Amino acid sequence: MFPGFKKRFFFWGILFNITLFLILLAQNPFSGKSILSDLYLYPDTIHYINPAVNIFEGFGFKISREGRSIPTEVPPLYSTVLIPAYFISHDPRMFYFTNIFLSLVSAFLFFLVLKLITDNKLIIFFVFFLYVTNFFIGWYPKLAMAENLALPLFLGGLYLLFTKVDCAKLVLAGMLGVSLLAAKYALAPLSISFYLLFAIKVIFGEGSQRGKTRLVNFFILFVAGLTVFVLFIYGENLYKNYNLFSKSEYFLKLLVPVVATGAGTVSSTPSSQSPTIFSFSNLQDSSAQYLAGLMGGPMEFAGFYRQIAPVFVGMLGLPALFYGLIIKRYRFVCFCLITSVVVSVAFMSTFKVVDGRYVYHTIPVLLLGFAIFLDEVRRFLVQNNLKFAYLGLIASLFLYYLITSTGRFSTLVFENWNGDKTPLNYNTVVAFNSFFPKSPGDPAKKPVVITDLMPYFVDLYSNGHYRILPLATFGFFMNQAAAAWGPQDDYHNLLAVYDSYLKKGFDVYVSDSGIYDWNKTYLLHNFKGLREKYNLVRVSIGCSGECILYKLGVK
Fold it and tell me: For residue range 487-529, what is the model confidence (pLDDT) as tens digits?
């Protein structure tokens, strides 16, 4: 083989992977042709985006509108990371650029961790290629969700765990563990396990260190972690009056199913017929679904039902992690990776809803396990003078993956630039803005629009020339309706609210956007009730007929 060929191949191969990753991520977030504009998933994205945008309006780190605020129900770190993008523009879709940056950081950290596991350039190229072309790694940045931040934090934690300890890394490790919790509460088990794993590494991992040095290192880790944790708890109480310990107690109580035994009383008797949202009764079914997903089967993931990794990655990578426990050079690495999977899957399996986004970090874990499998196969075949068999294996898997995934790659790129899904909610607000292009002469007489859209979502795109009222008495933020829609109305009787505005001489409209959603049949029922009570006159057709605006009149 020509001198330097491997080095040149490796350089150009990695450059190819990075370029391909950028191509798969690239899109215009402001085109209005993507689900990105709808700020999906609700209501989490509102809790992340609204505080980051509103902090520039002087409302503090809260969800705010019209001078009224409510605390967020998510930890603050992801919203904080979003703030720099909103210095450039207050358009809510600016989050995408932050997510692109976080994705590139994640890819870089994955590459570093991969190099710690194997030094074989062909394996590094292939596994890194699998990472950058993974559907969810490339698609998830479209969502303003904290997993985009959690992934680089997790991979950064792996890098710290797998490299030699020094003072700076101990401080970083102390900060990183709490950062996982500050990014997403559901990562609490991962945060705790990270500290335990790093403590094991400090105390037992590096035999050349003296006992006193190990004790000092553990002290640095403990103090750094405790300091950041205290600051986190203080911030939670300061901005949200949020007692993390009482919430933890509440969660533990939820793990035991409760059933009503009479008026005002409950029993702790387990009930398989009515499990709570968090319950050990969910453990068996949920864990089986997660395991099937980890092995390469399709699973629910943020509205999709598909594989989180190729079948050959799951079927070979997951067992390879357990096999690595008996190999000294992989033992601690595999123990850490297995722990990260087990604690997360076990915790999230108590949750009634199974969703792959809750175990998003297992995608790189499976790929690292697959790298261990390939490295062990390579060692065995090379030792037995079967190097060409190893090269044939890599080539076969690579070609199989290309053949089965090329269509997906082209579809993803096409959808990024030509639209993946009509953002109905965004288009509905755009239609409102077009119908109400000017502010009314009397600001107190703004026209009223009845809609299912969340007021905080509407505010992010609205021109401010109209106000909104809810179409249903339940939905997101209805438990805080006075803060969300205004304290002047009683939202328990919406028909009476609509009547009061009509009697006061307001122009009242209703939008049919979203009423045909099969998940929200109550909206269609409410809309039919309005049609029976009022005279509905169609005044605008928007969203290619999917968001029609009607004006209410007395029959």
Answer: 988 899 999 999 999 999 999 999 999 888 777 788 888 999 9
> Which one is predicted more confidently, 452 or 234?
452
Cβ-proximal residues to 378 (8 Å cutoff; 6+ apart), any chain: 120, 123, 390
Which of these three, 369, 393, 418, is where a domain ends?
418
Structure tokens at 538: 């169609």
Query: Of 376, 392, 418, which marks where a domain is finished?
Result: 418
Judge residue 149's burial from the number of C-beta atoms within 10 Å of its C-beta, 0-12 exposed, 13-18 middle, 19 or more buried: buried
Give the N- to C-terminal CA distance of the chain in Å, as an integer: 87
Domain of 245? 5-261+279-418
283: phi then psi, degrees, rounded to nearest 5: -60, -45
H or E element that contains 167: helix 167-183
Q: How do strand 299-301 and strand 304-306 relate by DSSP bridges? A: antiparallel
Instruction: Please state the rounded mean pLDDT for residues 527-549.
Output: 92
Same domain, yes or no: 370 and 498: no
| Closest to 461 in 3D by CA, of 145, 90, 34, 78 | 90
pLDDT the model gives residue 259: 38
- Over pLDDT 70: what percentage of the chain? 90
pLDDT score of 122: 93
Q: Where are the alpha helices (DSSP H) in 419-438?
A: 424-435
Q: Are residues 384 and 458 in the same domain?
A: no
Total domains in the fold of the chain: 2
pTM: 0.90
Q: 341: which 2 tokens?
A: 């999977």
Q: What is the pLDDT of residue 456?
A: 95
Same domain, 348 and 428: no
Is residue 107 over pLDDT 60?
yes
Token pair belonging to 5: 């060929």
* Within a domain: 516: yes
Closest CA to 370 of 9, 129, 20: 129
Same domain, 380 and 442: no
- In this structure, are 225 and 170 located in the same domain? yes
